[in-house]
Specification:
6-stranded antiparallel β-sheet; mainly beta; two-stranded antiparallel sheet; Yope Regulator, Chain: A; globular
Length: about 130
């Protein structure tokens, strides 16, 4: 199974959960709890919510994800990963292989960027929602 579908913007690293553009905050929390996937949540006065996930194992990688919700709808996912020994791949190469060297789509954008605070590479997935 692939980690990401560039056609519809769905992220699959939380298998069996399929994270899709605009998913509802409470619905995703319920799915995470139902599948016993540990997470940390924060809610800023019902305007901005975050779900942080650590040590998510998928495809010979360990992911760390931060999901940002605007008014309870998923807007952005920022993440990085560490590869298992023998499976090393750069963030840029991983993203390029998944997206066929594109960065903009009907659902939004995905690119490798520098973390604004820590100056380390970070994969940023942004959904353009109405």
């Amino acid at each position: 199974m692939k980690a990401f579908d560039a056609n519809n913007g769905h992220l699959y690293v939380l298998s069996p959960i399929e994270v899709e553009p605009g998913v509802d905050f409470e619905d995703l929390k319920r799915q995470l709890n139902d599948n016993t996937i540990p997470f940390v949540e924060s809610d800023s006065y019902n305007l901005f919510q975050f779900i942080n996930l650590n040590n998510i194992r998928f495809d010979n990688k360990t992911f760390k994800l931060e999901l940002y919700f605007d008014k309870k709808r998923l807007k952005t996912i920022s993440f990085d990963f560490v590869c298992d020994k023998g499976y090393e791949i750069s963030f840029e190469q991983w993203v390029a292989e998944m997206l066929d060297n594109k960065s903009a789509f009907a659902w939004g954008r995905m690119k490798v960027d520098d973390h604004p605070k820590y100056n380390v590479p970070l994969i940023n997935l942004s959904y353009d929602l109405p």
